[in-house]
Amino acid sequence: MATKKEIPNAPEVVSKQAAARKIVSVAGEIHGDIKKKHKPSMCFPIRSLANVKYDTKRGHFEILNKTATRTLSYNTVKTFAQSMRLLATTKNDLLDKDDIAGKREIYYNSKSWGECRFDEQPESDSLLDDMEAMLAINREQLGYIPEERGGDVCGPLVVIDRDPATHKPIKIDCTKLGSGAWSIPSRVEHLGFESKAKFVLTVETASLFQRLVHHRYYEKANCVLISMSGVPTRACRRFIRRLADDRKLPVLAFTDGDPYGYCNIYRTLKVGSGQAAHINRFFCVPTCHYLGVTPQDIIDFDLEDATHPLEEADIKRARDALKNDPFIKHHKEWQAALEQMLKMGVRIEQQAFAKHGLNYVLEEYLPQKLKKAKFLP
Amino acid sequence: MGLKGGGEFSRLGGMGKKQAELVTAETMASKQRDISVSEFFLKNRHLLGFDSPRRALLTAVKEAVDNSMDACEEAGILPEIAVELEQLTESRFRVTVTDNGPGIVKAQIPKIFAKLLYGSKFHRLRMSRGQQGIGISAAGMYGQLTTGAATRILSRIKHTKMAHAISVQIDTRTNKPVILSEEEQDWRPTMQVVDEEGKPDGAPVVHNHGTCVSIDMEAAYVRGRQSVDEFLKQCAIVNPHLTLHYRLTLKERAESGNLKPEAGKKAGKGDASESQISGFRSPPSALSVTYRRAVNLLPAIPDEILPHPHGVELGMLMQMLKDTESRTVKGALSSDFSRVSAQTAGDICERAGVNPKASPTRVAHHEAELLYKAIQETKLMRPPTDCVAPIGEEQILAGLKKEIAADFYSAVTREPAVYRGNPFLIEVGVAYAKPEDPELKSDDPVRLLRFANRVPLLYQPGACVITKAVQGVNWKAYGLDQPKGSLPVGPVVVMVHMASVWVPFTSESKDAIASYEDVLAEMTLALQECGRRLSVFLNKRRRDLEAARKRNYMELYIPHLALGLKEILELPDKEEAKIVKDLKKMLEKTHLDV
User: Fold this and answer.
1) What is the Cα A49 distance to its own chain's centre?
2) Residue B67 burial (CB < 10 Å; 0-12/13-18/19+)?
């Protein structure tokens, strides 16, 4: 693991003052253009699968240098004005005042901007992403807090956090949370870990997580259980990454057996997303492997009659991934798995193992898979 | 030119008829007698536009105004005419038309107003409003027939001390005027200008010459496209040199018992059209309007011309040969027709095999036919065209501008052309109304105004070549919607004027112009020219609207952009204002065609 040090362990920590200065410098350039009677423009990297490459050495999607330039014109004047007001709000209300805001709060905040307001939240979300890419500072550091839950953790792990007021360390034993679980906070950089677990198991659905927790599966398998509830959030990805790096733990992913589970949930967890390509290197878990449910598992575990036919959207997603997803295109095993699924024409849910008994999944499926230790990359 | 003196209408009795057993030639002869023209028209009044009470009112006004206009223009007087309609009883109106024309000498008054087919216009080929000299006397006769009242005329000639006041009736059997009373009065044509609200504007104008004719008649007043109101308004458009006063007085409705005013209001729009049709439901109690003169220039007086041989029918050719003062056929051809030289006349005779020196009165029927055929085959110079006087593009624009509030006006006057030997000239005017015009809606068919020799044509639009011409133009190419084969749609007034020494009306009531290919072609060309100009305007307007929309949009957001910069960079207000100014300039330069 000599190469490990090459990867910066954490996103650059940018002070609020530095972030504010960055905003001032961007605005200053625009103002300078206007003074020179040039049409001002904003430049930011294109955030899509088309502008990433799968960096196999580092194990994640790395952004390419394609950039989009938004020059002021009749078509862009509204977005341009909204961007300026968003930058002003970010600097004056969040950074300068050391405050935080949710995406939805910012959307509502714009309602005081008159005709410049955002009509729908996706508009402001998209501009926030643009701003983040343009400044090259992730939005958490600008004071924007994610609203979605970061994920739940349970198992042989002690998280060392700090009291927000006194900054005294607080130790959280993730085996002593009763029937609940510990929620991953939106910022995880300051956390420390103590663990003797052998690996981390991330699961897609909360119900399966509940079953594993209820039957204390983490003791039996000696693993840390993490519930992702769909595509893992940035904080969740960052938490798993830090935990894996810190404790040198392998990570396994257990999702529904469908193109969404493979290409969206698992792919994003492992190598990052096109949307957040500019910050993927921190928010992904390159060491992660895929446990199941694979198309082959459907056959191996006699689950053909517990499947659902693939829907149009599933087929389209699978074909699209085969054609355009740099990660899938790199891994023959994944191509084979997707082709197999398309050929079978079915998808399967994690809960389908209940066909053989409610606890079949933790009594038979997981132990067999772990024993076999043949995972998809 | 078919209708001539009274004698032609007498029946020739008995010829070729089997004698019935009980009726002898003698008994029949005792019943056979002359039918006067007056009697003939009495029985065929629809031919002259007196077929309904509503139409009769319009026709009477139309004939009187035509006469007044022609008289003024021939005398070189800028016309000022007052039309007054006064409702006497439910179904009876008094029509009074006063002009500032030259006046009429006393001896002529009875003949002009109470003798059919008397006039100065019938015997000549010259562009004028009236053509046959039956109009005003027919109106008087119609009044006499329906109310028993006489036609009253006041006329004052310049430099005379008194005006003549004469009451006449027509003897419908002899077509001769009967003077009921006659006296001298100190009368002068007096007219009152009114403002837009119908209130008197300044002192009444008194002229020292002019004529006033007053006829009582059975009539109905109905508003709408075929009303007196519309006719006079169109007169004002097409005669911008005319000042026209119009006053309408209606009787208070007698039996309004079951229709209270409030109930009427509640009935709403649906009732409005109904009331227009019935005319007596809820008409305005009074209307007073002055259409003011927009130009002080009289139209040129057109020259009189001889008939062109190519425009002459066989019967008329025979008649002309009979009436000529020349003693030879050749002489008659060259002196009584335009564009026929002695040389050409000789050629025609030779071609027809007719002795050029023969006496024209003795030309036999088959010889006339040969002559007629020869004329058709002979190439002749086109008739002189200075005999048709256009309204003129400037005058058309002036007329449209004063009566229609529009954003775009265009007028085209074509060069004179010829159909069947008759010189004519086509003019087209187009106005694109302002959006707030309540009458011209953008999803209604265009308003088509038809004119012949400056007279509005209100009836039978479907039978008229003007309608056909407008429908035949592809207006979509010029930016207007147009259902297939119909009038285009839009807030547009299209006026088409045909000026000619002889307008080919489809009937004697002069409602519609017959479709001649040459006429249709000229109209189409003029309409297309206006259409092209309209499309330039519409395109520019569309671009302007688009630019305005874009400018508004940009100006909505530029201040926000500046505000954002100001807040980030902590700029002074002055700098913020400068950013707004600079950005506006920058964006307008590239995004607006200014």
Assistant:
1) 15
2) buried
Q: From the centroid of its chain, how far is CA B355?
A: 45
Dihedral over Cα of A127, A128, A133, A135: its sign: positive
Percent of chain B with pLDDT over 90: 42
**Nearest-by-CA chain B residue for A116:** B557
Tell me the average pLDDT across B100-106: 91
What residue segments make up the domains of chain A, in order of their start?
Answer: 13-145, 152-372
Report the alpha-carbon distance of residue A229 to residue A146 in Å, rounded.
15
Q: Which fold has domain B309-377?
A: Helicase, Ruva Protein; domain 3 (1.10.8)
Q: Among partner residues A39, A73, A115, which is closest to B556 by beta-carbon distance?
A: A115
CATH no. of A13-145: 1.10.10.10
Dist CA A139 CA B125 (whole Å): 93
Contact B493, B440 (CB under 8 A): yes
A82 touches chain B (CB under 8 A): yes
Whether CATH 3.40.140.10 fits B42-252+284-291:
no
Residue A7: pLDDT over 50: no
CA distance B298 to A199: 108
Residue type for A106, please? Answer: I
Q: What is the DSSP string of A105-136?
A: HHHHHGGGGGGGS-SSHHHHHHHHHHHHHHHT
pLDDT digits (tens, 9 = 90+) for B537-579: 999 989 888 888 888 898 899 999 999 999 999 999 999 999 9
What pLDDT, on a 0 to 100 scale, did the predictor assign at position B436? Answer: 82
Position of tokens 């029509």? B95
Alpha helices in B220-313 (DSSP H): 228-238, 261-267, 269-278
> Model confidence at A87, in pLDDT bands (50, 70, 90)?
very high
Q: May I ask the CATH architecture of the domain B393-530?
A: 2-Layer Sandwich (3.30)
pLDDT at residue B544 in the model: 87
Tens of pLDDT, residue by residue over A254-285, are 999 999 999 999 999 999 888 777 778 888 99
Interface residues from chain B to A (CB-CB < 8 Å) = 550, 553-554, 556-558, 560-561, 563-565, 567-569, 571, 579, 582-583, 586-587, 590-591
Cβ atoms of A269 and A228 within 8 Å: the answer is: yes
Nearest residue on chain B to A40, alpha-carbon basis: B583
- The enclosing H or E element of B465 equals helix B465-472
pLDDT at A92: 92
Coil, strand or helix at B391 = coil
DSSP B246: E
Please report residues of B whose CB lies closer than 8 A to that of A72. 561, 583, 586-587
Which of B557, B560, B568 has the CB atom closest to A23's CB atom?
A: B568
Provide the number of CB pairs (under 8 Å) joining chain A to chain B.
83
The correct CATH number of A152-372 out of 3.40.1360.10, 3.30.1390.10, 3.40.640.10, 3.40.50.720 is 3.40.1360.10
Question: Measuring CA to CA, which residue among B377, B368, B414 is closest to residue B525?
Answer: B414
Cβ neighbours for A219, distance < 8 A, ≥ 6 positions apart: A156, A175
Q: Collect all residues with Cβ–Cβ distance below 8 Å to A132 and sequence separation of at least 6.
A: A138, A139, A142, A278, A279
Task: Determine contact, residues B155/B100, Cβ cutoff 8 Å.
Answer: no
Q: Are A253 and A202 in contact (CB under 8 A)?
A: yes
Lowest mean pLDDT among A108-117, A272-281, B70-79, B446-455: A272-281
